[in-house]
Amino acid sequence: MIAFCGLNCEQCDANIATKNDDHALREKTAKLWAELNHAPILPEHINCDGCRVNGRKTVFCDSLCDIRQCALKKGVETCGDCSEMEGCPIVGAIHVNNPDARRNLMK
Description:
By secondary structure, the protein is mainly alpha-helical. The protein has helices at 13-20, 23-37, 59-64, 66-74, 89-97, 99-106.
């Protein structure tokens, strides 16, 4: 359940809310993400089965995530398989704030 960028989808509140059909967690996550992204994110938008698996995805993960779109275009399993990862500013922004994501890709 490691995303293209290295984040662990199993630890994502959207994935947890989806698996547990937890409406309270959907509401909490939607509120937080709306504030962080200055965007209208509603509880019904918080459904995701994981970045790299078939199934439901949040709107951001499905079509707005530049990392996911790049990885799909390049046909790599994760950014860790991309020869350009070390200098990539897109995935680098994730790794600066979450070094565990980079470590997940190096395994």
